[in-house]
Every structure is written in structure tokens, then in C-alpha cells.
Amino acid sequence: MRRKLVAGNWKMHGSLAENEALLSGVLAGIGEVKVGVAVCVPFPYLAQAQARLAGSKIAWGAQNLSQHAKGAFTGEVSAAMLKDFGCAYVIVGHSERRALFGESDAVVAEKFAAAQAAGLTPILCVGETLEEREGGITEQVVGRQLDAVIAKCGVSALAKAVLAYEPVWAIGTGKTATPEQAQAVHAFIRARVRGLDAGVAKGLIIQYGGSMKPGNASELLSQPDIDGGLIGGAALNAEEFLAICRAG
Ligand code: PGA
Q1: pLDDT tens string 153-176
Q2: Which end of the chain is least crowded, N or C, by CB within 10 Å?
């Protein structure tokens, strides 16, 4: 059985004081939660996450990393630096990185490889835009994004990774994919991996992300191929985040 994983993606939100309130709220209610839980915080707050969460049931991670190991890359952060702060996870290929910062499939694959080389578990995001969905090419887009990583790292690399299906049109918009729409793409992803390695496909955690909230989480999380959530907005509120974790 796959153990579900609910991860918060704080994006560019928070402050030392706000994070303290949020983390202590989540820690206070984490006792009854059965799923795995993680928070992906902005780089400057990794030390705070480590200090607050070490020894707890909550893992932490980052939202991006450099594809390079070290060198003259002003402003970049390497996988080894994330390891230094105890990160377990790093989000790779979030649609905001792809769309706003020009990350290609090839760069995303390099970042995925860099994360794994340092012993981090990448959370690889894939997903189509509204235009692509309406054009009937959702599977083509998601398949291409996935194949780029498999081509570089091999299907066996997915045994040490998490996938997140995040339809771009559902992110931060309040428009959630219906459980059926999400399940269909999750099943497609798993089948594609199964075609290469049945064992890897069976163990692969595929999260859903895109306006997951307490009100829609249990229906989404009860779908056979939805193994958790990548939570943006609702992860900034301890009660909402915990409610989603409890729904898993
Ligand atoms: P959202 O963001 O929950 O605010 O839609 C999800 C994400 O971008 O990971």
C-alpha cells in the first residue's frame, strides 16, 4: 500500500513570525494525522523549519533548486545546501517555475537529477494549461513532461520520487479538477510508468495539486490513484492544512 503524502507549498509567503504561528499550529494538531506530511518553505526559512520540525512527524523541503552542483551561479541554491538544512523534499518543475521562469522540460529533468544525486526526494510537478486541456492534449503534455525526466534519469529514478499532477488552470484559481478528471490523469500517469516498470508504478506516490481544500480533499484523496496532495493556499492556514491531512 502506498502511504499518502500531503505537502504544503508555501510559495513566496511568510515571515519568521507568521511561520512560527503556522508551524506551531500544525504541530499542535499533527498527532491524529495518519498520512505523511511535509512543508516546502522559502529558502531563507529552511533553518527555521529545521529548528521547529526536527524530531516531529513533519518533514520539510524547498520549492526549487539549481541544476548545478556548485559554482558561479549568483543567486542559485544547490541540492547539497538544501541537504545541509535537513530537507527531505524539493519541488521540481512547478508550473510557476516553468511558466514564469522559463524552465524547460530539459532543465526540470536536470534539477530532478541534481536533487536525487544529493539524496533529496524530488516532488516532480506536471500539468496542462487550460488551453491545452481544451485542445484535448492533456495526456500529450503530461506524458511529455514525464518522459523528459524518465529519458534523463531512467524509470527506476521514480522509485525515489513523488509526482504531483497539477492542472495549471486549477492552481490558485479556486477551480479544482473534479475527482473524476484528476483520477483520469493520475491513472494515465501510472499506466505510462507501468508500461516501463510495474513495480515502480505500484509504489509511486502521485499527488494532486490545484485548489485542494478541506471541502474537496476527502473526495479527491479517495480516488484510487490519488495518493496525497500538494497544497498551496490552504497550506498557509494551520487548521485548513490539518483538515486536508486528516482527510487523507
Ligand atoms: P493551490 O496551489 O493549492 O493554491 O491551488 C497548489 C500549488 O501550486 O502547488
Answers
A1: 999 999 999 999 999 999 989 888
A2: N
In terms of pTM, does the model score above 0.85? yes
Region 11-33: what's the mean pLDDT? 97
Q: What are phi and psi of 147, to 5 degrees?
A: -60, -30
At 92, list the grid cell.
521540481
Show the ligand 1 pocket: residues with CB < 6 angstroms: 9, 166, 171-172, 209-212, 230-234
**For ligand 1, atom 1: residue with the closest CA:** 232
Centre of ligand 1 to C-alpha 211, Å, is 6
Long-range Cβ contacts of 27-34 (<8 Å, 24+ apart): 27/52, 27/53, 27/56, 27/58, 28/238, 29/238, 29/239, 29/242, 30/56, 30/57, 30/58, 30/242, 30/245, 32/246, 33/57, 33/242, 33/245, 33/246, 33/248, 34/4, 34/248
Catalytic site positions: 94, 166
Q: Which atom of ligand 1 is nearest to the CA of 234?
A: 3
Expressed as residue numbers, the domain containing 86 is 5-247
Domains in the chain, number? 1
Provide the CATH number for the domain around residue 238: 3.20.20.70
CA of 29 to the centre of ligand 1 (A): 22
* Distance from C-alpha of 205 to C-alpha of 123, rounded to nearest angstrom: 10
